[in-house]
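Protein: Quinone oxidoreductase
Species: Zavarzinia compransoris
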Amino acid sequence: MTEAQVVRFHQTGGPEVLSYETATLAPPGPGEVRLRQTAVGLNFIDCYHRNGLYPLPLPSGIGLEAAGVVEDLGPGVAGLAVGDRVAYCLTPIGAYASHRNYPADLLVKVPAGVEDEQAASLMLQGLTAWYLLFRTYPVTAGETVLFHAAAGGVGLIACQWAKHLGVRLIGTAGSRDKAELALAHGAAEVILYRTEDVAKRVRELTGGKGVPVVYDSVGKDTWEASLDSLAPRGLMVSFGNASGPVAPVSPGILGPKGSLYLTRPTLFHYIADKAERDRAAAEMFDLVARGVIRTNVRQRYALADAAEAHRALEARETAGSTVLLP
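Structure follows.
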């Protein structure tokens, strides 16, 4: 048996419902490995699970993303060895832990040249940037796109990846400091959404045309501006709710605004296939190792301080990525 420190919640609510507990791990079962986790990624979906927006059976662990080292193999595990460095970003939920048992076939090996903190902050956010840019709306060189929260964890990766692909990314940010951060990571222009008219500015930057796609993880506060920034037949990609969920929408509004398309994608539908997931992760890790994509772990909290990390994230006091350290 192995003792583990874990973060759990027994009721939904604010960050204060998170509790730091000790759990006993049984040996890994068939198809599982036991991991000693070295870094845990913090993501907005964790807040949605904690506050009940995305309901979970209670009590529940929390967290989807971590990196660590294989410590033990369960029956039937092939292709992994004790000591391998690995990372993941899929259910079962419970990444906020010092040790855990996890399905071996959902793990991705972390190559030399990529640090554990980088891997833990990249799996969910980096693969989100990958599916948005390559699958939901496959961008092409020379295009202009709008990406909200460009200084966030997903946004900074998207800025760099878009620039690498020859795409002009217009970002939005809530402060001058965050705007400068996004520009330093490849954004072509950044709009200060709190003081500027986003849609008007997008039209100015595109010669009145608008953009073919808007990637929006902010939600309620940017919904109207996002739709009004699109060119005719443009695609609205709503993939998050940082400011709160969008109110119920009548599809009738999409016609007058330009016969627009609307999608609500989820990462897990894009990486459910192991071969595709492994290819995407390998491509992403290769760009990191080559220095094309720089990771931005800008906040670190002890695992025991997960509640404080949630408060900072929801208050939009963070930039780049945040990791919890067991």
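Remarks: The longest strand covers residues 32-41.
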